Fold this sequence. Notes:
It is a single chain. This protein is of the alpha/beta class and 379 residues long. Helices cover 40% and strands 13% of the residues. A 7-stranded mixed beta sheet has the order 2-8-7-6-5-3-4, sandwiched between helices. A 3-stranded antiparallel beta sheet has the order 9-10-12. It has a two-stranded parallel sheet with strand order 1-11. The radius of gyration is 21 Å and the shape is globular. The two termini are 30 Å apart.
Amino acid sequence: MIYLDNAATTRTAPGVVEAMLPYFSEYYGNAGSIYGLGSKSKRALITARETIAMTLGAQANEIYFTAGGTESDNWALKAVYESCRSKGCHIITSKIEHHAVLHSCKYLEAHGAQITYLDVDQDGLISLEQLKRAIRPDTILISIMFANNEIGTIEPMEEIGEIAREHGILFHTDAVQAYGHLPIAVDKMHIDLLSASGHKFHGPKGTGFLYVNGRTKLSALIHGGQQERGRRAGTENVPGIVGLAAAAGQAALCMEERAETESRMRDYLIERIQEKIPGAQLTGHKKMRLPGHASFCFAGIQGESALIMLDMQGICASSGSACTSGDPGPSHVLLAAGIPEETARGSLRFTLSEENTVEELDVVVEALAGIVEKLQRRI
């Protein structure tokens, strides 16, 4: 098998699994208990919170553990709206956000919020000038993703943060695709809230966190207990949180070296596909993109058909977000970037990890070229 769908999920690293195992059967106490066994779990949570905070340049008490990026996005948007209703009801986001943000915005619109959805250019970048023009006296939140999951484009975080800070507006970023892969400094980038998900950087599924600047008031997500300082009740997933922190620490330690390797292989894959397959259209920004992310549109084919044929040859890829698989419509991200609907239906995404090899990529290119040619002959 050749796995090129790391934006959908990553293999849990062996060291992460090893770190988690004792908390299933040896240190299994409830972190809320006062006896020694429970204290071991509580200490593990404290250490995990400190580890993750360190990777962001944040404080440990600014990290809240969640079940993943979708929960973190929902919590950030809905809690800010609830907490800031007295100041205003206007939120700014973009048309290419993950559905965890877009659907939360639709929910809030039904409850009185007013949402501005920013356009993007052909590379998937928002316009900073349009962002400035969209700000109103009642704007309470700007939510722009750090890097897009479908086309890999990295947004200008520091500039967006500066605009938000100048106007006294909270800034949230969905960093699910970026955290663990790109350096993030929340203070320098003026980020007030940040969402991340463990399984995107070799951690366990069902784990994530929401960073909340200590100056930001946030209403509770789940009521019923004092876990997560009273804001997310429920017994903590100690093994998962330990794994999340282990993956975060390892990602931070190896980030620069891994990014160089993935970027080199990404560029090799892009070059080979464009040489081998006439008309292959790279989507997303050519330079400001995630290290292991290569996405294309191929005219005259259906992306899903190509994926099935790739799978038959042992190659795992995707046609967009794993969260929208089964949706027959074209990608909202590609349409927002100005790609025609028919072309957008022929999208494929290849997302690498440091475990992939050049030899694997050569196999993929040869297989893909034959598949695209076969599908295009059918029209």
